[in-house]
Design a protein that fits this description.
The chain folds into four domains: about 140 residues, 3-Layer(aba) Sandwich (Rossmann fold); about 260 residues, BirA Bifunctional Protein, domain 2 (2-Layer Sandwich); about 60 residues; about 80 residues, no CATH class. Helices cover about 35% and strands about 30% of the residues. Helix 3 crosses helix 16, helix 6 packs across helix 7 and helix 17 packs across helix 20. A nine-stranded mixed beta sheet has the order 3-10-11-21-16-15-14-12-13. It has a five-stranded mixed beta sheet with strand order 25-24-26-27-28, with helices on both faces. By secondary structure, the protein is an alpha+beta fold. The protein is built from 20 helices and 28 strands. About 35% of the residues are buried. The chain binds glycyl-adenosine-5'-phosphate. The site of glycyl-adenosine-5'-phosphate (GAP) has 18 residues, from strand 11, strand 16, strand 21 and helix 16.
Length: about 600
């Protein structure tokens, strides 16, 4: 039999079962090695692979290939639709390099550290908390203080994961994760690659609030790269040194603003609160967002609201809800800026990984940037009725302060203003005391121009609080692929396929001419053009037998394949075979209706078995 005849025979087998399901078995439950198989598939089929392979590769940097870039783009679009467009938030795109003072203010230069332990034998550095977690029953070593981590390493006689040498006597040190660079020639202006997209939003708050017409609440989103010099990047794209975040910074008035909790109150969630984690008999709780707020399990209503928005969204993009939960951070685990935080976690080969954090950042960031910069990070809160208040003011006599304090005179004025605001009794005697650089100075009250006046005020300036849903796109892409990975048997042959949701699948439909035949190819070309015209992502494949072409598309997760065969040309009404990926069921459909039907299938307005 020639290859062409063989191809035709293969196709007969595939098409004879039209309108039937020919997958013999239920998909096998993914086993412990799914990650290994997935990483191999990802490289072979163009999802993701380690970057700069020609130069030996470098840990923690990955390139998304054609399939991966398309999947990632679809996930980002879906996130934008839900968290920016549907919520009425603004999206910005800020630089990835920012000057040093930004990170002095944000606290990242001081507090953005991981625990490092270095092997005395091979010199390899490892995350001390990971060494502990991987080899003991401790699940959250990150939340332990350093001396305790050192004790655990000694007590369990833990060894270097690379060479097996003992780590018991090694000191655990802190390691700052920021990537440093210089802006321009020389080293006069140090800069850093941003470790979170959030800072690009916070520093622009004074301008962004104008775009929001100074009205709270409002949200600003950003999808972009973040950089962390991870001590031990691992598990392919789960922990890398350059990754993509999709973040929403939602600015609220903590006293006045409330979320529309009714919109999400009935959303069912699996929660793992800190109290349950700290309890030996503790376990996850099945509840709803509304109940969790009523019972005080989720302390902040805004955080609860965004958990309620996120859960159905994760479901829609293909995260398996049986392998999904929200876990509250333990107190030692929270980032330096967070007052409370819940992570969205997915289960991967028996381990829970963090896909997103939902943090209550309070006024930490805006207050810090106000303190370190010269701009104003407040919003004017209008009172319902103007209020008459007593204000203590000063109007110092500079002809006295100037000669007395020289260059420090303005600093003395600032001190007097601040003192009048917080302690007007200090001005009751003949003189008032101010402190400047640790030195106390007596100033006659008559020289301060101290007065208490009645003022009518329309409102006050407040520092908004921030609620932050922060999504890691790479980890979500990994989860979506992992949860979509399936194996079954079709016509006695093992098959691997990715059951990707049509909304995120990189390619929606594959079009194949059955054989290398001008007429079949011309019809297939026309179908490709018509499907692309309605905005679908289409691939054309005419190489190898039809069975192999199906397998290829199954492996990259293409939901539908269209085969143009001789029946297409013979029939009065031109029809083609359309095959569904997961069930392998096939139907003959008219070519004229194909774009409309396919667009409806993509939009979720139609199910294949309804056809
Ligand atoms: N702005 C808040 C923030 O950055 P985070 O928990 O440090 O919070 C948010 O990061 C998300 O970014 C994480 O939930 C995770 O999905 C992703 N992420 C963090 N570090 C990562 C890394 N090294 N590699 C890949 N993704 C990472």
């Amino acid at each position: 039999m020639s290859e062409q005849q063989q191809d035709a025979a293969d196709a007969e087998v595939e098409t004879a079962a039209a309108a039937e399901t020919d997958a013999d078995t239920e998909p096998a439950a993914p086993d412990e090695q799914t990650s290994e198989k997935l990483v191999e598939l990802a490289k072979r089929r163009g999802y993701f692979f380690q970057s700069s392979g020609a130069y030996g590769g470098v840990g923690g940097f990955y390139t998304f290939g054609p399939q991966g870039a398309a999947l990632k783009g679809n996930v980002e679009d879906a996130w934008r639709d839900r968290f920016a467009v549907a919520e009425g938030n603004m999206e910005i795109d800020a630089p990835t390099i920012m000057p040093e003072p930004v990170f002095e203010a944000s606290g990242h230069l001081d507090g953005f550290d991981d625990m490092l332990v270095e092997c005395p034998e091979c010199g390899e550095s490892h995350r001390a908390d990971h060494v502990v977690e991987d080899n003991t029953e401790y699940e959250d070593a990150e939340s332990l203080p350093i001396p305790e981590v050192e004790e655990v390493i000694a007590e369990y006689e833990l060894v270097c994961p690379s060479c097996g040498a003992g780590l018991a006597d090694q000191a655990v040190e802190t390691f700052n994760l920021m990537f440093a660079t210089n802006i321009g020639p020389g080293d006069s202006q140090p800069g850093y690659l941003r470790p979170e997209t959030a800072q690009g939003i916070f520093v622009e708050f004074p301008r962004l609030k104008e775009y929001a017409r100074n009205q709270l609440p409002f949200g600003v989103t950003q999808i972009g790269r973040a950089y962390r010099n991870e001590i031990s990047p691992r598990r392919s794209i789960i922990r890398t040194r350059e990754f993509t975040q999709a973040e929403l910074e939602y600015f609220v008035d903590p006293e006045e603003d409330e979320p529309d909790l009714a919109d999400v109150a009935d959303v069912e969630v699996t929660l793992y609160p800190a109290t349950e984690q700290n309890d030996d008999d503790g376990s996850e709780i099945e509840t709803t967002i509304g109940e969790a707020v009523d019972e005080g399990i989720i302390g902040d209503e805004w955080v609860a609201y965004f958990l309620g928005v996120a859960k159905p969204w994760y479901d829609a993009v293909g995260v398996d809800m049986d392998r999904f939960r929200f876990r509250q951070h333990l107190s030692g685990e929270r980032a330096h800026y967070a007052a409370d935080c819940w992570d969205a976690e997915s289960e991967i080969d028996g381990n829970w990984i963090e896909m997103a954090g939902f943090a209550y950042r309070s006024d930490y960031d805006l207050s810090k940037h106000a303190e370190y910069s010269e701009d104003r990070f407040t919003v004017f809160r209008q009172y319902d009725e103007p209020k008459t208040v007593e204000r203590a003011t000063v109007d110092p006599d500079m002809s006295y302060l100037g000669p007395e304090f020289g260059g420090d005179a303005q600093a003395v004025v600032a001190e007097l203003e601040s003192l009048a605001g917080r302690d007007r009794d200090a001005f009751e005697d003949d003189s008032v005391e101010v402190e400047l650089d640790g030195e106390r100075h007596e100033i006659p009250v008559e020289k301060t121009g101290f007065a208490v006046e009645e003022q009518t005020e329309a409102g006050e300036h407040i520092v908004p609080h921030v609620v932050e849903p922060s999504f890691g796109v790479d980890r979500l892409v990994y989860t979506v692929l992992h949860h979509a990975y399936a194996e079954d048997e079709v016509d006695g042959e093992e098959r691997t396929y990715l059951a990707l949701d049509p909304e995120v699948a990189p390619t929606f439909v594959g079009v194949f001419p059955l054989q290398n035949d001008d007429e079949l190819e011309a019809t297939a070309d026309e179908i490709v053009a018509n499907l692309r015209d309605v905005g679908l992502s289409v691939t054309y494949d005419d190489s190898g037998n039809i069975g192999r072409r199906y397998r290829r598309q199954d492996e990259v997760g293409t939901p539908f394949c269209v085969t143009v065969d001789y029946e297409t040309l013979e029939n009065e009404e031109t029809t083609v075979t359309v095959r569904e990926r997961d069930t392998t069921a096939q139907k003959r459909l008219p070519v004229s209706k194909l774009p409309e039907i396919m667009a409806e299938l993509r939009a979720g307005e139609l199910e294949f078995d309804e056809l």
